[in-house]
Amino acid sequence: MLVATYLCSMAKTVIPYKDSKSSKKEQVAKMFNNISGTYDFLNHFLSLGIDIIWRKKAIKELLADRPKLILDVATGTGDFAFEAISILKPDNIIGVDISRGMLDVAEQKINKRGLSHIFEVRLGDSERLLFEDNTFDAVTVAYGVRNFENLEKGLSDIYRVLKPGAKAVILEFSQPKRFPIKQLYNFYFNYITPSIGKLFSKDNSAYAYLPESVAAFPDGEKFTKLMQQVGFKQPKCRPLAFGICSIYTGVK
Questions:
Q1: In Å, how far from its chain's centre is CA 246?
Q2: Residue-by-residue pLDDT tens, the chain, 252 positions
Q3: Most buried of the four, 57, 67, 89, 127, by CB within 10 Å?
Q4: Which structural domain range is residue 113 located in?
């Protein structure tokens, strides 16, 4: 428990609004409400479209499992769930997110694509999932776990709602370690990303928070150890693009 407590304390050190006294959870909800209208555009623009490829690779981790009922935690505007529908052909996906603004965008996309019979979204806390134990054939999370207020609690709840033998797939930013990728990445993430974010977003803090939250996140082996700590078997880390992003998997 000491390892998990230490790692979680690391994950909670960064907040979007440093002059606010509200909790990280409340601040994250406010931040995503503020940027929901430009989130998809900036996500694809800032990653040069590579985020789409990363999502596909992550979802394909579930191809052999053929899950029929999937929970997408921190679903945001639904892009990870839409990839899952396209690639895995599940019967149903439920997306949960703390931001009403992001879910409004997701619902517009669901209705436009005629997928309301497969994909539904619900406002909810990712660390207090309102589902019974052993419910889902798979749980997915894309770029959401670093925003958890209590990382250990969030992972434990993901583990709880999975069926025995089912898999969690988590896609998250990580930090490259090799020269010169590390230096180029740090320059782009710390200077270019916040500057572009400020141009297109009405929330100046959101894209400054992004590199800070990635830097504070216990990535790689630290995260797989935390997954193991909460009960996951065979936790694995698969780095992408020289370690800019990583796919984590674990089985209940």
A1: 11
A2: 434 443 444 444 689 888 788 899 999 999 999 999 988 888 777 777 788 999 999 999 999 999 999 999 999 999 999 999 999 999 999 999 999 999 999 999 999 999 999 999 999 999 999 999 999 999 999 999 999 999 999 999 999 999 999 999 999 999 888 888 889 888 887 888 888 877 777 777 888 888 899 999 999 999 999 999 999 999 999 999 889 999 999 999
A3: 67
A4: 2-251
CA–CA separation, 205 vs 200, rounded Å?
A: 12
Interaxial angle between packed helices 39-46 and 50-59, expressed in degrees from 0 to 180 and rounded to the nearest 10:
100
Q: Provide the token pair at 51.
A: 């985020």
Q: What is the pTM assigned to this prediction? A: 0.92
Distance (Å, rounded) from C-alpha 25 to C-alpha 182?
30
What is the number of domains present in the chain? 1
* Cα–Cα distance for residue pair 141/95, rounded to 1 Å: 10
**Maximal C-alpha separation, the chain:** 48
Tell me how far apart the alpha carbons of residues 169 and 26 are, in angstroms, rounded to a whole number: 25
List of E strands, the chain:
69-73, 92-97, 119-123, 136-142, 162-173, 233-240, 245-251
Q: How far is CA 144 from CA 40, 44, 91, 167, 213, in A?
A: 15, 16, 24, 17, 11
Q: How far apart are CA 52 and CA 75, in angstroms?
A: 15
Give me the CATH number covering residue 48.
3.40.50.150
Distances (CA, A) of 131 to 125, 126, 136, 161, 233: 11, 11, 9, 7, 22
Gap between the Cα atoms of 252 and 1, Å rounded: 19
